[in-house]
Structures are given as structure tokens and as C-alpha cells.
């Protein structure tokens, strides 16, 4: 641990002396807490990060040789080298039954667009029941236990900003019926938020640095330092099903995908991804591409316009593989990423509005324009570090109903509509009569618990009504 005067002179030497401007006026308790925060700063790395990401704005490193990615199509017969769903599914089911699969949700984001007061996973998302996102995922795991007779442990990445609230929420809801020993929470790391103009670390108050979670890619380090990877080893977990907290349609245990990831001949079992065909050229999702023989996600804003709009002779988009941020990741691969510096993930910069105090006057600042640079790591940067990586197409409605915004696009309203649409589609496939409007939309609201089913095939085993009444709201 660095002592106070050494830390002070090291920070002064790199132009961060303002961090001590109000120190002498803090109470003893405030000083202790603040010093702990300052000591967690990687002071040696700070000048380089500021130079690279604040003083200069790095151009997005988009490889020149981008090619469309080949993928396993949702319909196995559509690929020149067809794949066999039942084989992949059987392989994935065997892994789940053998207790080799765990669920992993990244829930450390700030959810600033949603503007919900609390961790995003506590958001009421169910179309009929209003049940929370966390409960929906828990029901996925309860359903997997019913179906496969195996416990699927659940690792939940929080951030220091929402960790306690997340744990308290699970306790208050008795872990939604899961065994508390099989649910592990760990906070991701944070990065100091940096002044956009000067690169100085922003002060949230006179005794606190302004920080932001270090991105979903921060999970690599957090899984390691929290002991989660070691816990996985103890339990014999080999693969993680990775998903984001804001997608109630995430199929947490998808045997066909897990089976392809673990066993397809062109997969290394290190990191695999799900994609959906992009809805339009300007849909704002990352795109899976090939570069230098490796799979990568190129962010929407970094994709050269000519490629975004390029079309095949049949009119389909050439670069059509949109990322829905669902991956299968090998535990061994994560250990390598976490411990070998050659596999460190890069940072990305984002300009944001971060409330802070003016270091000169000590007065609070509520910015109306971007005033800060946040540094984050992205988990998909690990794809290019895998020996080989496969991409699997899924159907958009089946697995993607994101809740990003309070209203409008990708909001709870659009997600609830999609939940009903998917439920209606499944029920119809099971022979249930579902009332439709003249425009072809379900004329009812339906929610199917992931414990009841996460696919049509699973729904067939459930007790179902013969018909749904027009205008009704039903939860199955
Ligand atoms: P988003 O990119 O949508 O960010 O995260 P966000 O923080 O939730 O929301 P905004 O941008 O502030 O509105 C995608 C997923 O990655 C997780 C989020 O919790 C979500 O599941 N995430 C994001 C983390 O776990 N940590 C982070 O640092 C960032």
C-alpha cells in the first residue's frame, strides 16, 4: 500500500494534484474511504490512458480486410455443409446434465438510458405479471433443472454501484426459488471518469473520485479476482452461457448452441456467439465480421458505410450478422484471458455527461454537454483472441426483446409486444387458437414463464388451453 505522501507526490507528478485539493477538510472517516479509492487507481497506467484516449481521440481500428462472417443458419438445411440440430442439441444437453454449464449474466451497467432507480435486473419486465428480469432468468434455470435434472449455477456480475442492492433484492425474494449457494454475485471493477478537456480525474465530491464500471469486458478480470473462475473449476463447470441483463428473451440454456460451441469441428470451444439477421442497414447493432481469419464484432458506428449498405445479388445485406450479445465461453479460455497479459482486452472511449465538482471552486457541476471520457472494455473483443470461434444464427423474435430505453425503440413497451408475439407464435405452433387483429397482431397479452418453456418443443409438454380469449391477459 502506498503511503499518503508518496501517493500525493506521484499524483502531482502526473498532473492529478487536484485530487488532494480538499483532502485536509475531510473527516477522518472520509479520508480513509477516499484514500482507499485513490490507492485503487492504477497511477502508472493513467498518463498512458489519458494520452491515448483523451488527449488524442483514437480512430476506430477497423481492419481493412473485413469479410462477412460465415454462420450456422437457424435452419440447418440452409447451409452448404448442413449441421444436425439434434446432434448439437444432444451434445449440449449432455453437458448440462453433467453439470458442466453455468449461466453468466453481466448486470453491472449503469442503465442510464432506462433511467430506472435500481439495478436493471430488478426492472419489472413481464408482459402480464410484471415480473422482474432477474426472476425471468431464475425461471430459466429452474426450468433447466426440471428438464435436465441438473443444477445450473448462476454467476451475476454487478458493479460497486449496484452490488448491495442486487444482493439484497435476491435475498428479499428468496433467490426466486434457487439455492442461494448456486447463485454467486461479484462486482466488476471501475475506471476513473476523466475530464474530456484536460484528462484530469473527475471528482464526484471533495472526497470521492467519479468512476464508471469498466465495461462488460471487465468481466474477465472480475471473474478471476472474485474467485468465480476458481469456483467454476471446483464445480467442474466447463462452459458459460453469457447474456445481458436487459434481454428477457435470452434463452439461458440453449442446448443446440452449447453443443455447437463445445463440439462443432470449426469451434475451439473457447468463445461462440449468436447473431440475428440485421433488420435494416441502419440498425444500430454490432456486426460480426471476419478479419485476418478471426471473428470480430465491429460496432455500428465504426463500420464503413459502404460495407453497412453493401448487398448481395439477391438483395440481402452482405454484412448482415447482427450481434445480440449472447455468447458461450469456455472457462479455460477465460482463465487464459485473465492471467496472460498478451490477452488483455483493449479499452474503448465514450464521451458522456458526468456530474462532478469543479476542482477549482468545489462547486457541483451538472453538465449539459459531454464533459467526460469513460473507458470501458468490451467482452466481444475476446472473440479475436480465441483460436477459432463460431457464429450461430437465431431467430430475432425467439431471442431478442431488449429493454434499453424508457420509451420508444427497445423499451419496455416494445419488449412486452415482442413477448406476446413470441408467446402467440409458440401457442399457435402447439395448436392453440390465438385471437388476432385484422393487422395480424395477437389480440391479447400473453406471457410464458421460462420455467414453463423456453421453446415450442418445451411448450408442447405443458398443460395448455385450447384457445385464448380475445382481449384477455394470460400468464402460463
Ligand atoms: P449497455 O451497453 O446497454 O449499457 O450494457 P448499460 O450500462 O446497461 O446502459 P446505458 O448504456 O447506461 O443505458 C449491455 C449489458 O452489459 C452490462 C449491462 O448491465 C447490460 O447487461 N454491462 C455494461 C456491465 O455489466 N458492465 C458495464 O460496465 C457495462
Q: Main β-sheet, in a few words?
A: 7 strands, mixed
Question: How many distinct domains?
Answer: 3
Q: Considering DSSP H and I runs of 4 or more, what fraction of the residues is helical?
A: 25-40%
Identify the CATH homologous superfamily of the largest domain: Spore Coat Polysaccharide Biosynthesis Protein SpsA, Chain A
- Please give the count of helices: 14
Number of strands: 21
CATH topology-level fold name of the largest domain = Spore Coat Polysaccharide Biosynthesis Protein SpsA, Chain A
Strand order of the largest sheet: 4-3-2-10-14-11-19
Structural class: alpha/beta
Which architecture of the largest domain per CATH? Answer: Alpha-Beta Complex
> Low-confidence stretches at least 5 residues in length (pLDDT < 50)?
none
Q: Roughly what is the average pLDDT, rounded to an integer?
A: 96
Distance between the termini: 56 Å
- The radius of gyration over CA amounts to 24 Å
Q: Could you say which small molecules are bound to this protein?
A: uridine 5'-triphosphate
CATH top level class name of the largest domain:
Alpha Beta
How would you describe the shape? globular
Percentage of residues in DSSP E strands: 15-25%
Describe what this molecule looks like in 3D.
With 476 residues, the chain is α/β, with parallel strands linked by helices. It folds into three domains: 1-44, no CATH class; 46-404, Alpha-Beta Complex (Spore Coat Polysaccharide Biosynthesis Protein SpsA, Chain A); 410-476, no CATH class. It has helices at 4-13, 28-39, 46-55, 85-97, 133-148, 163-172, 219-225, 228-235, 255-263, 305-309, 331-339, 396-399, 412-429, 456-459; strands at 67-68, 101-106, 154-158, 183-187, 190-192, 194-195, 203-205, 208-209, 211-213, 239-244, 271-277, 287-291, 294-298, 321-330, 348-352, 356-357, 364-365, 372-376, 391-393, 445-447, 473-475. A seven-stranded mixed β-sheet has the order 4-3-2-10-14-11-19, with helices on both faces. Helix 4 (85-97) crosses helix 9. It is globular and about 75 Å long. It starts with a helix and ends with a strand. The chain binds uridine 5'-triphosphate. Uridine 5'-triphosphate is lined by residues 106-114, 120, 157, 188, 213-216, 218, 244-246, 376, 404.
